[in-house]
Amino acid sequence: SGSNGPLPASSADDVRFMRRALELAERGAGRVSPNPKVGAVIVQQGRIVGEGWHAEYGLAHAEVAALIEAGPRATGATAYVSLEPCNHTGKTGPCSEALIAAGVSRVVFAAHDPNPKAAGGAARLASAGIAVSGGVLEREALDQNAPFFFAARGADRPFVTLKLAVSIDGAIVDASRQPGWLTGEEARAAVHALRAETDAIAVGIGTALADDPALTVRHAASPRRAPLRVVFDRGARLPLDGQLVQSARALPVVDFTDGSCPEAESALRAAGIETVVVASAGEALRHLGTRGVRHLLVEGGAALGSSLLAAGLVDQLVIFQAPVILGAGALSAFAALPAQRAGQAPRLRVVERKALGADLMTVYAVSGD
Ligand code: AOF
Ligand code: ZN
């Protein structure tokens, strides 16, 4: 929404500079949750004179950081921001007022701020005579902060990403059912970067038993807060000598059980595990939501992934496909899901796809738009 007559059409330059703002926003990954990642670029006569991003929860917003770099060159400039500038005094002052004070003449943003406390920046800027356009690369901006926008829609559970490594034939484990590594180094680093951005990481008990995972962030920059570690462990079978239990006093683990094995549960509690009795996966997710988990990464296995998918509790799939064929008897990641007819099965939207060494990473939107 703007003022002063017709809005300037979004041009190739607008798209190019917004792409840069989205790229800068990524630098806040792992540092700003539950806030969104936001980037900003100040452009004077076709040249970037300031760049900024929301770098740390509670600290400067992207616009303010970019305006500081631009200094007096912000006067008469265009500001590109991946989120509508905020209009509130929260942990910092309103970005709308900072942009007005700096004398920018145009503001382009990607997505509206859905946070009622912060919203209204576009209207405030327009009321000060600044040309405002929104919606440039909006889809990309919504995808970049999907967990933030999901929470803003009033969700009563975290945004759930299911990550799986599969073969060319879509299998997660070979006929022997013995665990074996499928993907390469670069995919592993990407998984750790994904872990660093989430508030909690979960596995099913089958995976905990088979792989003895640590569920820590190692091959990526350390996040502001280490993700909570979560196991879906109906029968309280988490092994006391495994990595999760052994490290539980240093880094918390929540073990969701069905309450049917009180002795095993108390042994886990004595070892420093927090056991939580739930009647369903949905209840477990709601419990995590009440603890401030906005983005849950589920790392398998097939049983947990399929049951969450079947219950409509997965919002995003991240599939790492390795260049291997597992052949006869291999287990499809989704073999437990209801049968679909080819040509009629719902088609998932591809959010992102990139090559990681010899592997291919694809992010699919499962729920929503
Ligand atoms: C912006 N630019 O870079 C960000 C914005 O707790 P606070 O005061 O930091 O405010 C957080 C809210 O501000 C957040 O929920 C979202 O609505 C907005 N984030 N806004 O103009 C930024 N990170
Ligand atoms: Zn702001």
Describe the structure.
This protein is of the alpha/beta class. The chain has twelve helices and 16 strands. The chain has helices at 12-25, 62-70, 95-102, 121-127, 138-144, 146-152, 185-197, 205-211, 243-246, 262-270, 281-290, 302-310, and strands at residues 39-44, 47-53, 78-83, 106-111, 131-133, 159-166, 171-173, 200-204, 228-232, 253-257, 274-277, 295-298, 316-321, 331-332, 349-356, 359-365. It starts with 11 loop residues before the first helix and ends with a strand. It binds ligand AOF and zinc ion. Residues 61, 85-86, 95 line the site of zinc ion. It holds the Pfam family dCMP_cyt_deam_1. The chain crosses the membrane at residues 320-339. The active site is at 63 (proton donor). Residues 12-133 form the CMP/dCMP-type deaminase domain.
Summarize the structure.
The chain has 369 residues and is an alpha/beta fold. The protein has helices at 12-25, 62-70, 95-102, 121-127, 138-144, 146-152, 185-197, 205-211, 243-246, 262-270, 281-290, 302-310, and strands at residues 39-44, 47-53, 78-83, 106-111, 131-133, 159-166, 171-173, 200-204, 228-232, 253-257, 274-277, 295-298, 316-321, 331-332, 349-356, 359-365. Zinc ion binds next to loops.
Give helix and strand order, one letter per element, not per position: HEEHEHEHEHHEEHEHEHEHEHEHEEEE
Shape: globular
Which band does the percent of strand residues land in? 15-25%
- Low-confidence spans: 1-5
- How far the N terminus sits from the C terminus, by CA atoms, comes to 23 Å
The mean pLDDT is: 95
- Strand runs, count: 16
Q: What is the assembly state of the chains in this entry?
A: single chain
Radius of gyration: 23 Å
What strand order characterises the main sheet?
11-10-9-8-12-6-13-16-15
Function: Converts 2,5-diamino-6-(ribosylamino)-4(3h)-pyrimidinone 5'-phosphate into 5-amino-6-(ribosylamino)-2,4(1h,3h)-pyrimidinedione 5'-phosphate.
GO molecular function: 5-amino-6-(5-phosphoribosylamino)uracil reductase activity; diaminohydroxyphosphoribosylaminopyrimidine deaminase activity; zinc ion binding
Catalytic activity: 2,5-diamino-6-hydroxy-4-(5-phosphoribosylamino)-pyrimidine + H2O + H(+) = 5-amino-6-(5-phospho-D-ribosylamino)uracil + NH4(+); 5-amino-6-(5-phospho-D-ribitylamino)uracil + NADP(+) = 5-amino-6-(5-phospho-D-ribosylamino)uracil + NADPH + H(+)
Pfam family, one: RibD_C
